[in-house]
Amino acid sequence: MAVGTAKTLEKLMSFFVSLMGFIFILTMILVGPNYIEVFNGFIPTNIPEGSGVNIIALIGTTLIGINILMHATTTAEKWQGSEHLEDANFDIYFNVGIGTIITFAIVITSGTVLYGSGTTVDTPLVFSQMLEPVLGSYAKIIGNVGIAAAGLSSAIATPLILKTVLARLFRWEANGTKARITGGSAVIFGSIFAAIGTNPTQMIVFASAISGLFLPIVAILIMIAANNKKLLQEYRNNIFQNILGGIATLITLALGINSLLNFFENLTSL
């Protein structure tokens, strides 16, 4: 197994995401949320003031634009030809579904143990600490393993994704010096911020919000490619798929614009 390849990344991500998913789903079940209120929460009645950045960050950390590009790369390496289309579709539905379930589990668990408690979330470890009344001595073990798996899945994936995607974009040698420096820069950048004592929660929200802001651009490009008759022929999007894709793109675009407007409004008020 060659280090730094898309196949390596796929195997590592499968392990960490599986571990993370198991931990967070188990935790959600153990904290015993009010499922009636959970289902009612799927129908948004209002968006709290100032929550735009957190909403776009949540979307950005669930559907990460660069991960979509990386998935296209790994898919191209794994399958070629229309005979593999069914397998490729299953792979997409399964991976996106797992990611969505993990996000639901984290949000539901956090809402159950944190909402109304007055706790300020200034470190990811708050998640483990708030589980103690429910899980007792197992709270730190379960919570910290989940957080570690989430962190490692990003720490390992980001440099490899950055290296692979930019190497493809600029036609560099996949494991050449330029590609390796690019991947290593992500590690150095993150290490510097960690070393100078930057608030990890703010870093996570900021990075996820940036990802969310770029997501509409990736979504628009995907919609253009998915409707390219010359490229996809009979496999291009149908009307129903275009409606769903258009709605999703408009929602992320509206949230992104709202976050930017709030950012500039707060900037001018300083």
Description:
With 270 residues, the protein is mainly α. Helix content is 77%, strand content 0%. It has one domain (6-197). It contains twelve helices and no strands. The longest helix has 32 residues, at 139-170. The model has no long low-confidence stretch (mean pLDDT 75).
**Could you give the distance between the termini?**
52 Å
| Broad shape | globular
Taking the sheet with the most strands, its summary is:
none
Helix content: over 70%
Which sequence of SSEs, written as H and E, runs from N to C?
HHHHHHHHHHHH
Mean pLDDT: 75
Number of separate structural domains: 1
Percentage of residues in DSSP E strands: under 5%
Quick structural gist:
This protein has 270 residues and is mainly α. The chain has helices at residues 6-31, 35-40, 52-62, 65-78, 85-114, 126-130, 132-135, 139-170, 177-195, 200-226, 229-232, 239-268.
Output the keywords.
270 residues; membrane; 12 helices; transmembrane; single chain; mainly alpha
Task: Spell out the blueprint of helices and strands.
Layout: H1 6-31, H2 35-40, H3 52-62, H4 65-78, H5 85-114, H6 126-130, H7 132-135, H8 139-170, H9 177-195, H10 200-226, H11 229-232, H12 239-268
Helix pairs in contact: 1-5, 1-8, 3-10, 3-12, 4-8, 8-9, 10-12
